[in-house]
Amino acid sequence: MTVNHTQYKKVCLGRDYLTQHYALAFDLADVATYSCMSKYHFCRVFSEVFGESPYQYISKIRIERAKELLVTSQRSINDICELVGYTSIGSFSALFRKKTGLSPTQYRTKLQALASDPLTHPIQSIPMCYAHRLFGAKLEKSNIE
């Protein structure tokens, strides 16, 4: 399937909508309509352009946001589950474990332990976005040298 420029722009509208509204329940038909495409055509073009389905994309966005909240906030796992758009803590926990290899509680505990004394752990074990918060400009400077 070859995607032309017009289709690409339309599917990017849908992707941007999903990114901005990741925490809300969505109907794929509504996202496709927002993109001026049919539901099935939107799914085909989205998968072709981004290499994953819209559902896989939204799950990835939600899990990444949950990972951030688990480390940077003291909110309960249930609150985080709801904040990122899941209604079932069981479904959220199962998907989180599938994507990260750890339960949300294990992930929080592990990353908070790394954050408590970051200089004792190899930098490769800390996600780059989190490392930037911990080390700031020092990290960038050491990579340049």
Automatic annotation (TrEMBL):
UniProt cross-references to InterPro entries, sorted A to Z: Homeodomain-like_sf, HTH_AraC, HTH_AraC-typ_CS, Tscrpt_reg_AraC-type_HTH
A GO MF label: DNA-binding transcription factor activity
Residue stretches making up the HTH araC/xylS-type domain: 17-110
UniProt keyword list: DNA-binding, Transcription, Transcription regulation
Domain of life: Bacteria
PROSITE patterns registered for this protein in UniProt: HTH_ARAC_FAMILY_1 (PS00041), HTH_ARAC_FAMILY_2 (PS01124)
Full protein name: AraC family transcriptional regulator
